[in-house]
Backbone:
């Protein structure tokens, strides 16, 4: 059999197993990025307020980003042991840089005129943040989340070396099998597909949450519901 036939045979015989590992792989990636967003977005906002701290924060996150993934997993494994939590913590560290940097960039790139308009309207600092700064910087922040999630999906594949499972299990198993190419592809193709779908999904979510999109929908709805002229004879 050629590779495509072997690949089809593997999927037909192990479809449930592949779907289970796909789901497990995605959850690990999503959790890592989610926890990084909880920390990274407020950090990006904070250093946008106190810009002198930005160099220190970016230096730390840049250093973390340069650590090889296997080395990071090995160090964390010594502290936390084998399993999913080690991979999620590793993904948390790797996701911080794109999230913090994009949040910081999105906030500081907002024109001062918008902020002054908010102050002139009597808005508090919290209101300016939630009603002006975050909506205007949303697309940049979402780009950081998209980058972080795609990176996380790739790194999660090596989580198999610390017993975390995921699609990396299938890829590594293929290196020791007689029909190894087909099995490697059986794990690599869903991994690549997951990264593409995650990027498209977050891109769609970005458009849905975009203030410009909401304004367009609202305006369109207003035009459709506008009262028509009543003619009297």
Residues:
């Amino acid at each position: 059999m050629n590779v495509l036939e072997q690949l089809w045979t593997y999927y037909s015989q192990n479809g449930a197993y592949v779907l289970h590992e796909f789901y497990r792989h995605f959850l690990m990636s999503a959790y890592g990025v989610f926890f990084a967003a909880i920390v990274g977005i407020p950090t990006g906002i904070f250093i946008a307020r106190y810009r002198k701290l930005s160099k220190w924060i970016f230096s730390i996150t840049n250093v973390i980003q340069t650590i090889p993934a296997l080395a990071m997993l090995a160090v964390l494994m010594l502290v936390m042991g084998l399993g999913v939590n080690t991979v999620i913590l590793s993904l948390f560290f790797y996701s911080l840089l794109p999230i913090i940097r994009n949040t910081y960039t999105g906030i500081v790139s907002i024109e001062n005129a918008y902020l002054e308009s908010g102050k002139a309207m009597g808005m508090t600092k919290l209101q300016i943040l939630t009603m002006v700064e975050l909506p205007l910087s949303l697309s940049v922040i979402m780009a950081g989340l998209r980058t972080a999630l795609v990176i996380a999906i790739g790194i999660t594949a090596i989580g198999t070396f610390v017993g975390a499972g995921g699609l990396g299990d299938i890829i590594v198993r293929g290196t020791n099998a007689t029909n190894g190419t087909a099995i490697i592809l059986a794990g690599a193709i869903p991994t690549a597909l997951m990264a593409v779908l995650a990027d498209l999904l977050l891109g769609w979510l970005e458009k849905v949450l975009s203030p410009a999109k909401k304004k367009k929908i609202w305006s369109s709805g207003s035009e459709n519901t506008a009262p028509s002229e009543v003619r009297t004879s």
User: Anything to note?
Assistant: The two ends are 82 Å apart (CA to CA). Confidence is low (pLDDT under 50) at residues 214-233. The CA atoms of residues 1 and 179 lie 10 Å apart.
